[in-house]
Amino acid sequence: MFNLMIVKNYDEASDMAFKVMKDYLKPGKVLGLATGSTPLGLYSRMVKDHEENKTSYAEIKTFNLDEYVGLPVTHPESYYAFMYRNLFSALDINEENVHIPSGMAEDLEKECQEYENLISKAHVDIQLLGIGSDGHIGFNEPGTPFDSITHVTDLAESTIKDNCRFFENDITKVPTQAVTQGIGTIMKAKNILLIATGENKAQAVKDMLQGEVSEECPASILQKHDNVTIILDEAAASLLK
Ligand code: GLP
Prior knowledge:
By secondary structure, the protein is of the alpha/beta class.
């Protein structure tokens, strides 16, 4: 069941997302977090709220969706570095409560299994999602089984192209694999908040909301989740009937 909100632009989408998120910024809550440009507006609002209203993250746990394989945490485009730069460094969050899979683990299979176990025990209260232009969530590309758990995946050609802009527009610098929560992992979250803005997300948004539930559009599985809030701007909603 979708709670669908369509707002004017990216700023309004970020304001709306913060309103939803605010309810979960409480001691004991477990947040599922995402990277990409989409959540940046929400993250800056969380930082502002922490500074102005002293909202504390000391007893909040977080689990990120994914990480590139082969990028050390010191690489500026690793999702670890992204999260600290854009959110965690400005909060009073406890480092031991932050969970981001490692794409540098010697045994990646073991890393995936351990990450999955930790999430299963934690019970994510709200999972934040963006969406790829091909309908991916996390790094679950089209064709990923709906019952997948945390795993290593190859990135789709279109995703590598989309993410090129973060790697000096040099396609050879974009990692080709990632560790990602599976679709089954994401679906276990109690609530899901997906934000999509911009015209290049319009087709994926249409497929997600009005297409068949199919592994060809990973985000379409959200039609089967009981508590999903989707926030779109007008451009991302432009192909909806
Ligand atoms: C990446 C991330 C996704 C994200 C997507 C969209 O591939 N793994 O979690 O939703 O990109 O990114 P953006 O928000 O920059 O459009």
